[in-house]
Design a protein that fits this description.
There is one protein chain. This protein has about 240 residues and is α/β, with parallel strands linked by helices. It is built from seven helices and ten strands. The strands form three sheets. Strands 1, 2, 5, 8, 9 and 10 form a six-stranded parallel β-sheet that branches. It has a two-stranded antiparallel sheet with strand order 3-4. It has a two-stranded parallel ribbon with strand order 6-7.
Length: about 240
C-alpha cells in the first residue's frame, strides 16, 4: 500500500547505492526493524570484485552477483543507478544517457522480476542537472530519480526527477539522530517524508558505524503514525 493511500502523514524511506555485498548485512538490520529501503544497482557491474582505499583502510567493494539480486533484495526495492556509473552531466550524447539509464532499468527489471521504476544519480557532488533530468524524464520509463543534494525540508517535492534526500546516513550521524528525533515528535498537518541515503560499505570504515545505524533504526522504527516504505511506495 502506497504512502498517499494511507491515513498517515509521515513516511520514512531509505536509499542505498552500488549493490555491494554489505547490503546483505544492512538488509538483515532493516528487516529486524521492519524498515524498507531502495537499492540502486549498476547492472553491468554486478558480480565484480573491488577494493576501495578510504581513510587509509582497504574496504571491500564486491558487487552482488546478478543471479542473487532477486533473493538478496526481496522485500525491498531494486532501482537503477546506470549501467556503469558514469558522471551523467559530462555526457553530451543524449542517446548515451538514455542507454545508460534505460538499459540498466530493463536489465534490473529482468533480474528483480518486476518493473524497475526508480533510480539514483551516480557519483558524488553535483551529479545531476536540469538537462539530464529532462532527458531521463522524456527518454526512459524512470518515474523518479534521487540526487545527493541534502534538504532540511520534509515537504513533498514537485520535481521527482531531481528528488533531494534529507541526510547522508552514518556519515552525518549527528544530523541523522537530530532529524530522527525531530521527525518522531513531528505532528504535521500535511504529508512529510524523511529520506535517508548512503552506501552500506561505508559502515565498514569505523567499527561503531553499524552500531550507530542500529541506534537510529531503534529510534525511527515501530511508530504507529509513520509509514515505512520503499522509495516508490513513498514517492509515487
Amino acid at each position: 500500500m502506497k504512502f498517499r493511500e494511507q491515513s498517515k502523514l509521515k513516511a520514512v524511506t531509505f536509499s542505498y547505492d552500488d549493490g555491494v555485498t554489505q547490503d546483505i548485512r544492512l538488509i538483515e538490520l532493516l528487516n529486524k526493524y521492519s524498515l524498507k529501503c531502495t537499492f540502486n544497482l549498476n547492472s553491468q557491474l554486478l558480480g565484480k570484485p573491488g577494493i576501495l582505499i578510504r581513510e587509509n583502510q582497504r574496504i571491500a567493494h564486491y558487487k552482488v552477483a546478478p543471479q542473487d539480486v532477486k533473493y538478496v533484495y526481496a522485500g525491498h526495492e531494486v532501482a537503477a543507478h546506470t549501467l556503469t556509473h558514469p558522471f551523467l552531466p559530462s555526457i553530451t550524447d543524449e542517446d548515451e544517457i538514455i542507454r545508460q539509464v534505460e538499459q540498466d532499468r530493463l536489465n534490473l527489471s529482468e533480474l528483480a522480476g518486476y518493473e524497475v521504476v526508480g533510480m539514483a544519480y551516480p557519483g558524488g557532488g553535483i551529479n545531476n542537472d536540469d538537462r539530464v533530468a529532462d532527458i531521463i524524464r522524456r527518454g526512459t520509463n524512470i518515474k523518479y530519480a534521487r540526487t545527493t543534494d541534502i534538504t532540511d525540508s520534509y515537504d513533498l517535492q514537485s520535481n521527482l526527477y531531481r528528488f533531494n534526500p534529507n541526510v547522508y546516513h552514518v556519515m552525518e550521524f549527528d544530523r541523522l539522530m537530530q532529524m530522527g528525533r525531530e521527525f518522531v515528535e513531528l505532528q504535521p498537518e500535511k504529508p512529510q517524508i524523511f529520506y535517508i541515503w548512503g552506501h552500506s560499505y561505508e559502515m565498514d570504515y569505523h567499527p561503531d558505524s553499524w552500531i550507530k545505524l542500529e541506534e537510529f533504526f531503534k529510534l525511527i522504527s515501530g511508530r504507529e503514525d509513520i509509514f515505512y516504505g520503499t522509495n516508490a511506495e513513498v514517492l509515487l
